[in-house]
Write a structure and sequence with these properties.
By secondary structure, the chain is of the alpha/beta class. The protein is built from 15 helices and 13 strands.
């Protein structure tokens, strides 16, 4: 839901490679949600990274180029922060996690030069005016890696869209739409996971727990939504499914191409959302599931406990197959009432993009009005 503009002039944001941030993936979802919530209070313009056309440095930008004037450089992710070394204008970098360091197995198909570019960005962030982390966990990990950034790092959590909060909880209608798209009926009870299949997502533990539940209850099904994150990761998942005898089980459904309308239906029909992740910088699907009134079972992974802690339908377990399996069984045997689901939705509604956008605007306006941040010639400042 867009926020009405104010009498103040809009903050002009220059965003490198602006067009790459669409709503289909996590970082894009965060950025586009913020832009929508800012409304007319910001003007977002595209700029580009400058880099040398040489094999070992072309992915490590040394500067920023642009055609338009702006007040602040805004990087929706840490990649590219090396370009800030040559910039004298205010800048904000958003850090969603430092999995590139903490979870090396997740790199998968990422080429060497791209990986080196990300690592160079950590050094570049020393030149940022402000850094925003999605969670306290991410802030802690970032400061542990680069201690001198401590004074610059604020925590602004993500929000949940009205696309999830504002829809009626009509589980029968949502089930009918999904069954029509599948051409068959769904099991009576459903376990849902939304996310990739990268190593940090711990698909082995998740599928082992799912298999244990399905083995003793024919009325339970499992839905996995979202891309694998890479062909190699999907290959590993298929091996797990075959090993567990689930590769031909019609109760197991994978949706790769998922839009928000389908996501809302999946969250709504699910009896429990499960994440066995080893590492999360925030965990947006957890918040979206709560917004649709769905109980959540998660492992103690990074920021997940921050989101679920104190919620009326959230369960946090250790990295243990038996514990995860029992938590899932408990939720399935004691489904949330409609009143309970509504309470869970109200708890999720405390995390809105409007609230996050206000916090970001405080940072942006502070930087934009600092006397030492003003430049009469923006393009000269970029040189």
């Amino acid at each position: 839901m867009a926020v009405e503009g104010s009498a103040q002039d809009p903050v002009r944001l220059l965003v490198p490679n602006r067009s790459q941030y669409h709503n289909a993936h996590g970082i894009g979802r965060v950025f586009t949600s913020l832009v929508e919530a800012w409304g007319t209070r910001t003007e977002v313009k595209e700029c580009f990274y400058k880099s040398l056309p040489l094999p070992f440095v072309r992915n490590i930008p040394y500067g920023i180029g642009c055609k338009d004037e702006g007040d602040i450089l805004f990087l929706p992710q840490l990649t590219g922060a090396s370009a800030l070394r040559s910039s004298r204008v205010p800048s904000v970098v958003v850090v969603h996690d430092i999995g590139v360091v903490d979870c090396p197995a997740d790199r998968g198909e990422t080429d060497f030069l791209t990986h080196r570019a990300v690592l160079a960005s950590f050094k570049g962030m020393r030149h940022a005016s402000r850094i925003v982390a999605d969670s306290q966990f991410t802030r802690t990990r970032l400061i542990a890696l680069v201690p001198e950034l401590a004074a610059k790092v604020s925590v602004i959590g993500c929000g949940v869209s009205q696309k999830f909060l504002g829809v009626p909880m009509d589980r029968a209608a949502a089930r009918a739409r999904i069954e029509q798209s599948l051409g068959r009926q769904l099991p009576a009870k459903l376990i849902l996971y939304v996310g990739t299949e990268r190593p940090r997502k711990n698909m082995g533990l998740l599928l082992n727990a799912v298999a244990a539940v399905l083995a003793v209850d024919a009325g339970v099904g499992f839905i996995k939504a979202g891309s694998a994150g890479g062909d190699a990761f999907r290959g590993h998942t298929q091996q797990y499914l075959k090993r567990l005898g689930l590769h031909t089980d019609e109760r197991v459904v994978f949706f790769d191409g998922v839009d928000d309308e389908l996501l809302v239906d999946l969250y709504t029909v699910a009896d429990v959302f499960v994440s066995a992740s080893l590492y999360e910088g925030f965990g947006l699907p957890i918040l979206e599931a709560m917004a649709c009134g769905t109980a959540c079972v998660v492992t103690r992974a990074g920021a997940l406990e921050e989101i679920v802690r104190g919620s009326d339908g959230g369960f946090v377990v250790d990295y243990d197959e038996r514990g995860l399996t029992e938590a899932i069984r408990t939720v399935l045997s004691q489904p949330l009432s409609e009143a309970h689901r509504q309470r869970l939705r109200r708890q999720a509604a405390a995390h809105t993009w409007d609230h996050a956008a206000e916090q970001y605007l405080d940072v942006l306006r502070f930087l934009g009005t600092r006397p030492d941040s003003r430049r009469t010639d923006f393009h000269e400042a970029l040189r």
